[in-house]
Structure formats: C-alpha cells, structure tokens
Amino acid sequence: MIRDTTIGAKLWATMIWVVVGFFVLNLLAMTATVIIDSFATQWLRTWLPVGWTPKWYLSAWSEFQLGQVLIVTFEIVLTVVVLAGLFGVTAAYAMARRDFPAKRIVMLLFLLPLLVPPITYGIPMATVLYQSGLGGTFWGVVVANLVPTVPFVILVMIPFIEQIDPKIEAAARVFGAGTFRLFIHVLLPMLLPGILAALLLVLVRTIAMFELTFLAAGPTSQTLVVVLYYSVFAAGVRAVQSIDAMAVVYMVTTLIWLLIALRFVNPTQIVARGRRAT
Amino acid sequence: MSAPAIAQIGFRQRLAARGVDGVTLLILPALLLLLAVFVYPFLYGLWLSFAPKDGGVFGNYAAFFSDPYQYSTIWTTLALALPVTIISLAVAVPIAMRVRLMRNPRLLTTILVLPVTLGTVLVAQGLLNYLGPQGWFSRVLMLLHLSNGPVRLTHNYWGVFASLLITGFPFTFLLTLSYITGIDPALEQAAATHGANAWQRFRHIFLPLLVQGLAVSFLLSFVQSFAVFPSAVLLGAPAGPTRVISVAAYQAAFEKYDYSMGSAIAMIMAAVQLVVVVVVLGVRTLFYRGSTAGGKG
Known about the structure:
heterodimer, A: about 280 residues, mainly alpha, MetI-like fold, 2 domains, disordered C terminus, B: about 300 residues, 13 helices, about 70% helix, flat
C-alpha cells in the first residue's frame, strides 16, 4: 500500500476523517435521542430528560398491541423467508447450470425488481392485489414482499452455485440420484452457508420493508414498521415517548437479526449484491 | 417403439441440446411469480393510466401536466434527489479511497449499514427528535453561537434532505467502496513507481477505471432518492414544499381512489427515472471501459 507523508496529504486525510466522524456522530446522536426519549418522564427544553421511567414500554405494548403486531410481523417475515428461499434457490440453480434461449431477458426480469424502487411498482401492484381480493390480507403482504426478495435470493445464490463443481452432481447422478435427492443430499449441504446468508438478509430486508407492506397491508396484516409509520404520522395523538418506545422495539428486532446476519456476510453485501468477502 | 414416441424423444433431445430440460423448468415458479405480480401489474397500470375516469386516452397525462400542483412534484422531487445523490457520491469517493487503505474497516462499514437496514421510517422518527427546534442539533448550534434562536430543520425541505442523506450516503458509500476495492492495487503501485503523485494517481488511474462503477452508484442512489416517500410525509411538509411525486401518486390512488390517475403518476415517475438512467448511461459510454484487474498485457 502507498502512504503519502506530505503535509497536504495528512491534512486531506484529517479532513476526510472529520467528515466521517461528523456523519457517524450525528447518526449515533440521532439513534440515542430515540432511546433516551423512550425512557424519559419529560424531555422539553433541556439537554437530558428530567427523570427516567420504563413505563412507556408498558403503555406502548398495550396501546399499539405490540404483542399482536410482533406475531403478525414474524408470521409474515418467516413465510416470506421460506417462500423466497424455495422460489429463489430453485431458480438460481437453473440460472447457474443451464444456458437457454432468452436467458438474458429472464435475468433482466430478475434484476428489475431490485433496481426499480418499491414505491414505483408498488402502486400498480397494490391496485392489482386489491382487485384480486388479496389486498389487505396476510397473503397479499407476503406476495408483495416476494417481488424484491425472490430476485435477491436468486442473485446472491447464482455465484454460490456456480462455484460448485458440476462433476459432483454428475457423480451423484451416476449413482442414481434424481433431481430431488441430488438437491437434498448433495447440493443443500454444500449451499447451506450461502442459503443461510441470503435468507438472513431477506429476513432483515423484509422486517424493514416499508413501502410494499404499507401499500398491501390491511388493518390485521400490518408489520411493525408500518404500525410505527402510522403512529409517527398521527403524532400528537399519543405521547412521543410511547412512539419512541415502539421505535426502540423495532430497532432491537431489526438489529438482533442484522447482527446475526453480519456474522455470515460482509456489510457491503447488504448493499452490493453477490460480491463475496475477500 | 411407435413413430410418435420417437418424434417425442427427438423433440426432448432437441430441447435439451438448447438447454431446456427438467432442470431448466425449475426456473418456472420464480418466473411465473414475477410475471404475475411484477410484470402484469406494471402493464396493467400502463393500460389503466390510458383509461381515465374522464377525458380521452391521454386524459390523465393531460390533467397531470396542466395542473401546477401536480407537475411541480417532478421538480420538487428532482430538487431533493439530485443534490442528495451528487453530494453523497462526491463525499463517498474520497472517503472510500481512504477507507480502502484501512486494515479493518469492518466497524465503520457496520455502523454505516445501520441506517440502510433500519429504514427511512425509523430515521424519520429519530430526526424528528434530533433536528427539532429543541433537539440536540439545534442546541449545539446555539451553544456554539452559530445560531441565535432554535433552528427548525423538520417539517420542511431540510428535514427530508437530511433523512435522504443519512440513508442515501451509506448506501452510495458502500457501493462505491465495493467498486474501489475491486481495482487491483498493483496498478496504483505501478503509477507511483513512475513518480505519479496522489492526485495524478487518482485522476489518471482510479477515475478512468471507476467511471463505470460510479455511474451505477449514481443511478442506484438517484433512483432510491427519487422514490422518497415515508420521510417526505413524516419529516417534510407533504402538502407543500416536499410534496414529492410518490406522495402525489399515493394520494391519487389510495386517498381519492382514482387508480387510473395513480397509475398514470406512477408511470410518469418511472419515465423520469428512465430518462435519467438513459442520460447517465449515455454519458458513461463516452468514457474508458476496461478491466480493473492488473497483470501483464
């Protein structure tokens, strides 16, 4: 690695770290205000709250029916994870192993839902979901969330599958394994780390997916992030601390899974797809 | 064996030779799903947008482009998305150039991935506290005598701007970082051996190799910022200064129940994004395009 030792280079490096520090500081301070406020008895016109109390968690739990919301959230998220895994891994296998006509077009189709922002395709999609009767239901939310997650699994899994030597599969076939047994006994154990990483990322993304869930959800199928949106939207109806308590519950729910996911993937992978840790 | 059976085997083998067999069919579930809930709704929305409640085929589009309250949303959104994207990219490149030299950048990248993962709704709620007139940000400014009274940065343009920057910058940065670390350091070392200083190395080695990646980073961040929705509603003034195009589309479709108009606005939104994508990709082809790997050649 080349390191510059001139004064100009050192000043430049210092300036860069000041900018990074300023950004990270603001980010942490912003997160801290949410956590501090959720424990505050009253926090107006002072640097720190007047007193501390855990009561907002109890009130948020009952006011927003957080127990029920968490159950719905995990039902939806787990269904999405399982289905995205099934649809995604099978399709990724075909994409990695076969060259067929129109493969480029199919690939483009799998890329588009990841490139087009959810709100752009979400509005026509929600219209169709409501007309088909799925809108506002549990399955409507699941189907809506499958649109970005299935292509995501496919794109993460293709390089994983490509690196497995096809001779191993050929050997299994020689010994008489059908496609299904090949999957269960040969491919699945080898692909497990990749599948685990992809599905954990799907999990984190689905918990945090606001736009599609918001457009497709009805009163009984709202996930945590949508409930949070509505309560911030109707700020003034309830105490700010109560909303912040729910925000902390949401933050903790997401972060637990993010931390687990980060044990298996590189942070840059959450943004840039398919690039394995070097 | 009868003649049709032979013909059938022949057909199957011909298909297999072109890459279509049982394994290829595994693609069908995912493909059908996306055709049904991604492609079909988009085409249906396109068709619906040409079937307005009143007016001719182009009734919705005529209504949108003749009403300043509606068509100004395009400028409002561009005025948010373009500065945020350009600033993010301009700041991300020098930082990524520095972070690439770090031995263990994992802590920094983990902190930066937080806002991307937590999402815009949580960032909006956090910024409502933090940037409000009594929030820490305003208090620090007063403490440093940079401002005489409380600063209000929420429920206006700057609130949405800050929220887009907080979620958009890490996204752009991580993407840029993945491109910069993909460039072989040997290329830079070669330039340094020939006496190129830091700026020359960046200008003549990195920049030409990065243009393609930077174009993609720019597009992905721009498209994400252009679709700003929750923070424009929660942190901005959705009735006025930050009435972005997605708010207009949402209101038309789900508050006025005019699905046709809502679809039309969504199509306009997609069209604007497409125009920017085409322009940037067009500019990109003017630059060098080649391998980022070193080696003898």
